[in-house]
């Protein structure tokens, strides 16, 4: 079912008819036709449309934030912050895309040419398969660089955020982009394969679960099409004795419960040196207990509901598995009574390798606490997962900083801070957290043909 269901109440607000085969064919045809002409527009023209889109996002931020909160339960403050971040992303690529994609000269003499260089050119229609947790930002971090590179996009969004999906296509159109530059397809997962196999689709990007990523990668591989995959993470947050403990605790709470705990780059495993473990644990648990759980439209709420009933059930299953195998619940751990899909901030200690939480991602406001004797053990625990998206380490010891940068097996390492996606920095992971990069210059080049030019 494609529908807006309010996570705070469980009420179905609005349902949508899936796109028909005819609708899908029209979108593919329009996308392919638009791609042939849009690729010839100038960077200056694209940038003008990008900035106009950013202006609309900022002007409509309050209404759009309310819509996002209704669809997936994030607090109004975080929803508005997401809308404004999207505007920033559009402006970033409007300002920088031309330089990022400028011809790259080579050593002409070395290759016996009068001129030699690499040129970045758009590849055409790109299918974007996006999740619900950041309904606009996840899609914009693809759309902004793709559009500035001269590509066009087809968005298959999560089925529980259809209004967000339709809004993004609409605001891009109202920003001035030609019809067909960015279209939303309201389709279920079962329709993705036929769209991806269509010869008019050049490539795909997916943010979502590992099984979804495997499926899309397999189809794209069979069709010899490029993919970028971001498949989640179980990010470590390491705290060493030299850290500013109060700052580490405060950041740890935010890093775990941001977006109601439903973020791929949220810190999930808190690995604390034994010398400061007890003090950190006491302060961290107190801070998690002090958070206000409730209506996401209430400005005093810190943590809203989980986005889906199934998502809450998945969290409960992982917590139950750990407790049954001997883990200790320091706070939370039981769903809240009443309507809506609420789950309290929870801290679990004593996690051991046979528990699923040791290696799996918990997509909710649940923190796992681990004790480490030294840097080596902290790194062993941190890397004891198949994921490798983000990571955090807190220390003021220069040698330890170097160790964590070198040996944390992740696509991103943040020292004395929490992992955040910035337009200015490449975003992506290693191992089962995916392949390829989004954002920065790396992201805009992912869906370009790097054409070698040699002139005799």
UniProtKB/TrEMBL annotation:
SUPFAM superfamilies cross-referenced by the UniProt entry: ALDH-like
Domain named Aldehyde dehydrogenase: residues: 2-453
Entries under InterPro entries matching the protein: Ald_DH/histidinol_DH, Ald_DH_C, Ald_DH_CS_CYS, Ald_DH_N, Aldehyde_DH_dom, ALDH_GabD1-like, GABD/Sad-like
Alphabetical UniProt keywords: NADP, Oxidoreductase
Highest taxon listed in the record's lineage: Bacteria
UniProt-listed PANTHER family: SUCCINATE SEMIALDEHYDE DEHYDROGENASE [NAD(P)+] SAD
Family from the record: Belongs to the aldehyde dehydrogenase family.
NCBIfam families with a match to the protein in the record: PRK09406.1
Protein name as it appears in the record: NADP-dependent succinic semialdehyde dehydrogenase
């Amino acid at each position: 079912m494609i529908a807006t269901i309010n996570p705070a109440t469980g009420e179905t607000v609005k349902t949508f008819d899936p796109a028909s085969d005819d609708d899908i064919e029209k979108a593919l045809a329009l996308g392919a036709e638009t791609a042939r002409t849009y690729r010839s527009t100038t960077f200056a023209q694209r940038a003008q449309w990008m900035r106009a889109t950013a202006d609309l996002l900022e002007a409509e931020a309050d209404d759009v934030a309310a819509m996002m909160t209704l669809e997936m339960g994030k607090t109004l403050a975080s929803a508005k912050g997401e809308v404004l971040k999207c505007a920033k992303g559009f402006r970033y690529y409007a300002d920088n895309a031309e330089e990022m994609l400028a011809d790259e000269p080579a050593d002409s003499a070395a290759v016996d040419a009068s001129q030699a260089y690499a040129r970045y050119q758009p590849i055409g229609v790109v299918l974007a398969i996006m999740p619900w947790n950041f309904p606009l930002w996840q899609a914009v971090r693809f759309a902004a660089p793709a559009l500035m590179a001269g590509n066009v996009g087809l968005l298959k969004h999560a089925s529980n955020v259809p209004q967000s999906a339709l809004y993004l296509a609409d605001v891009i159109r109202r920003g001035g982009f030609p019809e067909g530059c960015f279209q939303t397809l309201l389709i279920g997962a079962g329709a993705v394969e036929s769209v991806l196999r269509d010869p008019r689709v050049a490539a795909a990007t997916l943010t979502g679960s590992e099984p979804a990523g495997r499926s899309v990668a397999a189809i794209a591989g069979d069709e010899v099409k490029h993919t970028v995959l971001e498949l989640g993470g179980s990010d470590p947050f390491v705290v060493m004795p030299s850290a500013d403990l109060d700052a580490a605790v405060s950041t740890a709470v935010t890093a775990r419960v941001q977006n109601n705990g439903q973020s791929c780059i949220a810190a999930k495993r808190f690995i604390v040196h034994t010398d400061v473990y007890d003090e950190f644990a006491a302060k961290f648990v107190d801070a998690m207990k002090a958070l206000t759980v409730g209506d996401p439209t209430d400005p005093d709420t810190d943590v809203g509901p989980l986005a889906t009933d199934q998502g809450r059930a998945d969290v409960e299953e992982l917590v139950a598995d750990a407790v049954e195998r001997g883990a200790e619940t320091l706070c939370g751990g039981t769903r809240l009574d009443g309507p809506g899909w609420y789950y309290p901030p929870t801290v679990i200690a004593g996690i051991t390798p046979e528990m699923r939480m040791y290696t799996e991602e918990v997509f909710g406001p649940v923190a796992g606490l681990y004790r480490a004797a030294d840097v080596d053990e902290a790194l062993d625990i941190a890397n004891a997962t198949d994921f490798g998206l983000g990571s955090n380490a807190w220390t003021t010891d220069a040698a330890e900083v170097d160790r964590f940068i070198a040996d944390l097996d992740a696509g991103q390492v943040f020292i004395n801070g929490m992992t955040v996606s910035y337009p200015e920095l490449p975003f992506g992971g290693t191992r089962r957290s995916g392949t390829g990069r989004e954002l920065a210059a790396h992201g805009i080049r992912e869906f370009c043909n790097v054409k070698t030019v040699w002139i005799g």
